[in-house]
Amino acid sequence: MLSMHLIDSLDAEILLTLDRDPQATVLSLSRALGVARNTVHARLRRLVNDGSLAPFSQRVRTEALGLPLIAFISISISQSASDEAMQALRTIPEIIEMHATTGDADLLAKVAARDPADLHRVTNSMLAVAGVVRTSTAMSLVEVMPARTVPLLQAVAGRTSQEFAEK
């Protein structure tokens, strides 16, 4: 696991500016923020190298891949086979995110599928993994709020939503 540095206010400002203009150059960022080009370049390189920034592939919407259905699947696994089960589950491409959790299940997987029949196929492939005891599925009806970090970056940058909109 990479060792992430905490994002400070300048890092947050850089990221918020990039969020508004993802194709901004280092030079345009430095001018917009009033800091040296080398500072912006070094900050961006550090954010990438220490794992603070997720890969670009995580920005791809599953709908664009022909997988519009999103489901959340709780997975109970046999504790004696947990490492092997998690490794096998990682090989299922439709599982796009997975977390170890507390509560009734051991894992929570976010899954992308073409339609309910395809989701059934994916769920069956999960159940076929040695060590998976049972699953429970909840289909997403509509995304009411996508994953977001802008409000958190704004807080780190020391600005409110209104101030961000005015800039």
Compact overview of the structure:
With 167 residues, the chain is an alpha+beta fold.
SSE order: HHHEHEEHEHH
Which overall shape is indicated by the principal axes computed on the Cα atoms?
elongated
CATH superfamily heading of the largest domain: Lrp/AsnC effector binding domain/regulation of amino acid metabolism (RAM) domain
- In the CATH scheme, the class of the largest domain would be Alpha Beta
Description of the structure:
By secondary structure, this protein is an alpha+beta fold. It has two domains: 9-58, Arc Repressor Mutant, subunit A; 62-139, Lrp/AsnC effector binding domain/regulation of amino acid metabolism (RAM) domain (Alpha-Beta Plaits), CATH 3.30.70. 40% of the residues lie in helices and 18% in strands. The chain has seven helices and four strands; from the N terminus they run αααβαββαβαα. The chain has helices at 9-20, 26-33, 37-49, 82-89, 116-127, 150-157, 161-166; strands at 69-77, 95-100, 107-113, 132-139. The protein has a four-stranded antiparallel beta sheet. A hairpin with a 6-residue loop joins strand 2 and strand 3. Helix 1 (9-20) packs across helix 6 (150-157) and helix 2 packs across helix 3. The radius of gyration is 20 Å and the shape is elongated. The chain starts with 8 loop residues before the first helix and ends with a helix. The mean pLDDT is 92.
